[in-house]
């Protein structure tokens, strides 16, 4: 039922990037390489957003995830000064059971996805625009927006307190 | 006093409680005093009750015990002729036995416990005797069984005593189940446990005849178990492992008398069913001759007496089955006297010979223990039915009853049994008291005075006990009066029958004399030509062996099988469950290692299982 | 035309890979990475439904916006907690944080 179209090819390539990045992140050994693989994957997700007519989100994704969060993570790695290698685990059973459990969950998800009758309709994406998005956010969802602002502030203060040097210890 | 008859069983019960509480504090004498005084009080009250009852009428008193629906179960006391007589017999024999025990049990470490058990035993029997309804009767019936278990196994450190106690308990239990079924059947059909109402129902024909027969037979099964009738007699001789006073009590007044008393008490039910009467008469007759023949060749002084008891109980059953209600009860009474006497005398002999019980090693006691010898002789004469001793009158009543009831076969069996009885009793007497002494003189000790005078009273009763009935049938009239039981008919043969039986008994005595004292006949006069008969008798007809082979061994296998089943299959399952739980515990302990990742993993697995569980069937549908 | 299922499947794959990483990675920083990946997988679903859903409209994108914001806050707090933990226990090994025994 999937016709080969431009969108399909683009989706295929981008999702390959995304999944590849994710899998590389899991399997790479050096931590810095992992961060790079993750950034690659998150960048791919921005591409997916473009395919889904969410250009503003794609930009936000690139800015926040590929930029800010990755850098934050690098800082985390650097500041904790650990040996930047993921050691080979001795927890073989743990990994095996995790794999089985996650695999079962994956099976259930995929099974559910492919057995759910979706409408198969496409929204009128030509009306989607950043202006409308902004309008929705600032009109309809203004209270959640403010709440998120407070959350960010609290997270900022909290992060400073947590990461800051403890006194009198 | 009749209205306060409930106090009679209370004295032994109180004695039991006191003795049990102070079993470590009381000296032997104190214990003996407590027990004997309680029994004496019971005896006094019983005598008062009997005196009052001689002129008065029945008394029935009771309290409500349980009430459900329309049914009320009561407990209470009833005093009628039979009860009053039994009260006197039980408390009297119990009192004498307790006095005697003070001498017999001297030196035993647990005299207080012994007296406590005797008190409980007496209490149970007295309670059984005054019960006005079947349920209460059954309760005391079981209590009697428990007490017999405790007393037979009193010397529990002897393996034989332990085995005998178990055997007595288990064998009588077979009978108890019969009685229990009878009690329930009676309740179903008559709607009441009260004996009076049951009798009314039987008389009015409210119970179908077949059921009456069934009930009567089941009651009789209970009596067979308790009174040691064939085929449940095997426990009685083994019960000789208990102390001799206990044997006297069991054989004369309490345990075995309970069976005969039960049949006598429920006599109207039996009267209503000819089949049951036949069963009672023939079982009694067979037991009488069967046990008497075994008694001929036994060598343990107490075992001979035990088989004699079985045989005499058969006599009583025979009498009851032949409609000789008064005769049966009369014989129960006289037998209580002379059998208690014989046992106590045997106990005295055993004490004198330092617990030697084999009659082949006794002899010549007449010179040293003439008093005991006279008592024993009195008992022997009484049980053999020589006039004017008590046994003569009661035995002739029985034979007359059988004769008048038209049961010639039963009558003949009774006569042959009378012959056998006198023969084995005098064999015993001659072997123990006559002949040359077979033990060294220094080993023969004296008999304490406290043991002598209870025997004296019993000897007196054995001599005079028959005159309550003769002349003039005083006892039978009084017993039958108002109870609706037809007294045994009197007929022309009434003169010949006693003569005949006396001659037969005398023949037995003379034969025993010839064989064991005078020695004009060799001892193997009978056993030489009939060796297999002798062996058969000596091994008690192989009844124990047969039971062992047919019942005990298969049960043993079954027991082993079940034990194996229990140990390996049930126990294995239990152990498997335990192992499983332990294993699960160890596993789960491993999971709780404090790492967030492990917890998250468990959550994920839990989520998967939850989804699968909730959507199973729909997911792949 | 693309089916929504493909996007959903992509989301599922990313989610499971992230979950696997969360469960098995021994470096706490990498655990945080994987949590971000899982959040992104959820975002893909939201955006996909904003285009192909039954009542598709731009609200899905609004929610994604919020999620990204919260995820950013979470990343910041997470790294801060990691610093605090590192100061106390001198390690970032997730399997060495084993004080959560009931």
UniProtKB/TrEMBL annotation, chain A:
Protein task: NDH-1 shuttles electrons from NADH, via FMN and iron-sulfur (Fe-S) centers, to quinones in the respiratory chain. Couples the redox reaction to proton translocation (for every two electrons transferred, four hydrogen ions are translocated across the cytoplasmic membrane), and thus conserves the redox energy in a proton gradient.
Catalysis performed (reactions): a quinone + NADH + 5 H(+)(in) = a quinol + NAD(+) + 4 H(+)(out)
Keywords: Cell membrane, Membrane, NAD, Quinone, Transmembrane, Transmembrane helix
GO molecular function: NADH dehydrogenase (ubiquinone) activity; quinone binding
Protein name: NADH-quinone oxidoreductase subunit J
Membrane-spanning ranges: 6-24, 31-52, 58-80, 92-114, 141-163
Gene Ontology CC terms: plasma membrane
Automatic annotation (TrEMBL), chain B:
Membrane topology: Multi-pass membrane protein
Domain NADH-Ubiquinone oxidoreductase (complex I) chain 5 N-terminal as annotated: residue spans: 65-115
GO molecular function: NADH dehydrogenase (ubiquinone) activity; NADH dehydrogenase activity
The entry's keywords: Membrane, Transmembrane, Transmembrane helix
UniProt keyword Transcription, yes or no: no
The NADH:quinone oxidoreductase/Mrp antiporter transmembrane domain, residue ranges: 131-421
Family the entry assigns: Belongs to the CPA3 antiporters (TC 2.A.63) subunit A family.
Keyword Zinc-finger: no
GO biological process, one term: ATP synthesis coupled electron transport
Annotated TM spans: 6-26, 33-51, 84-102, 114-132, 138-157, 177-195, 207-225, 246-264, 276-297, 304-326, 332-352, 372-390, 410-430, 450-468, 495-516, 599-620
Native source species: Melghirimyces profundicolus
Location relative to the cell: Cell membrane; Membrane
A cellular component term, taken from the record's GO annotations: plasma membrane
Protein name as it appears in the record: NADH-quinone oxidoreductase subunit L
Family annotation (InterPro entries): NADHpl_OxRdtase_5_subgr, ND/Mrp_TM, NU5C-like, Proton_antipo_N
Taxonomic placement: Bacteria, Bacillati, Bacillota, Bacilli, Bacillales
Any matching Pfam family: Proton_antipo_N
TrEMBL record, chain C:
Topology of this chain in the membrane: Multi-pass membrane protein
Domain of life: Bacteria
Entry keyword Nuclease: no
Organism: Melghirimyces profundicolus
Family: Belongs to the complex I subunit 4L family.
GO molecular function, one term: quinone binding
EC number: 7.1.1.-
Self-association and partners: NDH-1 is composed of 14 different subunits. Subunits NuoA, H, J, K, L, M, N constitute the membrane sector of the complex.
GO CC annotation, single: plasma membrane
Catalyses which reaction(s): a quinone + NADH + 5 H(+)(in) = a quinol + NAD(+) + 4 H(+)(out)
Function summary: NDH-1 shuttles electrons from NADH, via FMN and iron-sulfur (Fe-S) centers, to quinones in the respiratory chain. The immediate electron acceptor for the enzyme in this species is believed to be a menaquinone. Couples the redox reaction to proton translocation (for every two electrons transferred, four hydrogen ions are translocated across the cytoplasmic membrane), and thus conserves the redox energy in a proton gradient.
UniProt keywords, alphabetically: Cell membrane, Membrane, NAD, Quinone, Translocase, Transmembrane, Transmembrane helix, Transport
GO biological process: ATP synthesis coupled electron transport
Name of the protein described by the UniProt record: NADH-quinone oxidoreductase subunit K
Coiled-coil ranges per UniProt: none
Protein encoded by which gene: nuoK
Broad EC category: translocase
TM helices/strands, residue ranges: 6-23, 30-50, 62-86
